[in-house]
Amino acid sequence: MSLLKVKDLHVAVDGHEILKGIDLTINAGEVHSIMGPNGSGKSTLAQVLARRETYTVTSGEILYNGKDLLQMKPEEAACEGIFLAFQYPVEIPGIGNAYFLRSAMNAMRKYRGEDELDAMDFLPFFRERVKLLEMDEALMNRSVNEGFSGGEKKRNEILQMAMLEPKLAILDETDSGLDIDALKVVARGVNAMRGPERSMLVVTHYQRLLDYIVPDFVHVLIDGRIVRSGGPELALELEEKGYGSTEIETRQALPV
Amino acid sequence: MVTASARLGSYLDVFDELRKLAFGQDPVWLRLLREDAMALFCESGFPTTRDEDWRFTNLASLAQTTFRRAAIDDAWLSAEEIEPYRLKESACELVFLNGHFSPSLSTMGNLPSGLTVSSLAEGIKKSPERIESHLGRYVDTRRDAFAALNTAMFEDGAEVLIQRRTVVDRPIHILYVSAGSNGPIMTHPRNLIVAEPQSQAAVVEDYVSFGEAAAFSNAVTELVADDDAIISHCMIERENYASSNVSTLRIEQGRGSNVASHSVLLGGGLVRNNVHPVLAGLGAECLINGLFIGGGRQHLDNYMLVEHVSPNGSSRQFYNGILDEQARGVFHGRIIVHKDAQKTDAKQTNRNLLLSDDARIDTKPQLEIHADDVKCTHGATIGQIDEDALFYLRSRGFNEISARRLLLYAFSRECLDRINQAPVRNIVENLIQQRLLDIAQAARFNAATISQEQTAQNLEEVG
Fold it and tell me: pTM to 2 decimals?
């Protein structure tokens, strides 16, 4: 059974249609990449999957793990295993990073009927992942994302992903604003999470990230439609020819 | 006007009653002070919204209510009932029931040497000269009708004297309990806190109600921080919504003194919180920190007046407000820098969150600068809960109520973190968490009704 099945999804914001019929199937353990120019609807798709309510789904359906995702609140989707690494992580002054993460983990454990973690259970697990992402532990005592550099914010997203261990991780332009060293660290963190039980959707504008996180499938999203789908070689082709070439080709997207 | 003077008549009746009952034992200076103050109150009556200092707070319903004085045997509470309101790790606890000192509910413990704490009425009896040198010397009964009314009518309150170089490491808790039953009652608590040079202490003034009856507390605290004294004062308002509370904290600061005033307004239907420090000595420092959280039809009015009189003084005002439903908040921050107060550094910040369409805040900074070498800044912001932050938290598994509560708590944290004394901070933190849970639950339903067009306003002013 597929983990995620998006069928003919149409999404609008303020009456303006942004996604114009998306079909996408992701099976357990697969890494898919959505590529496309700015304004093509990539982030909208990512946010709709995380159940942001500012978007109106006008038609279509999304099945996640056999359940109707469109009936879920953001927190339900999160507790069911969907994680969105934000393109622009939000700063929350007044809430400490470590406290935030432990509370998030406990919210999910509670949802699943598991015991809450106390600080002693949490800390070793936390420290190990902070190290994996080469983050400064001092940052963890500061407020969530407050005063973090762009790279630190992105790494913090991946740290959260590593802690929350989702079934479906959606990375929304995690590469933007990262230098090559930070990109490698982030990719290592992401790759460490790959496994047969975890699927990923990597949303990106550039092919660069896909050198380090090699996807199983690449989809090209232009003007709210998936116009092509293929293997990792499609990303390289786009890098060479640009999105323009894809746009004039006839729609030849094949269901994966 | 006929109604208004008829109502003032009820205050005169109570004043007459007190003259017969209690004031006979007062020293002559105090009797004169009371007579003068009563005359001033009768002359001015309650302020109206035509008065600039009361523009946003309508006192009509307060002025039209006839309050009676509570007799000492009107109410009785057991020690068990008071227990949840006690402040753990306090140096001592003075409990006043409907304005009357309750020795049996109070715990005086083993006071450290150099600290004198007693009921003010007792202090007046035992050492009238000591009281005379301070009482009524600082509040302005001419300018402030409520201070005049309090001066005329007060029966008791706390007297705290911290002697030279005494450091009191645990907070002094003054608990005012209103437990009216038989119609609306009024009390006029009067506190006198004198900190001698180089002394250090923290005082908590705490207002609570038992039951749902209406009460009117009109409190005045005169706090004298002599040279190099370090004093923290925390006012907690957690009375029921039928209550009105007008409280005035008048601070007189000596050279190099450092005073922190914390106000935490969570309860009360109509609340006016006056904080008025005068930095009289050279290089005095003052922190004015406040948090007000209102829901329902609460009206929470904060009136700050900071006077810099001598050079090199510094004052910091930080007030955060959270208002939901039809609650209304006022922040009036006035800074006066007198002619000789060169090198004054005064800062004022008021941040507000409005959680519903009907909530309202009036924020009004006012700088009056007569010296030419000073640094004064003020800023005010009005906003709503950050929807991006809310979604971020929910996408990490927090349900909507706990996400809202967490964001409101984060907003309140700034104020909480400025309270240095752990026992005080802990009690305030618990009260805030409880209050925010109510607000977050209510706000979730209101949020749905906030119209899309309404966007956060941000008014940032620096001048």
Answer: 0.90
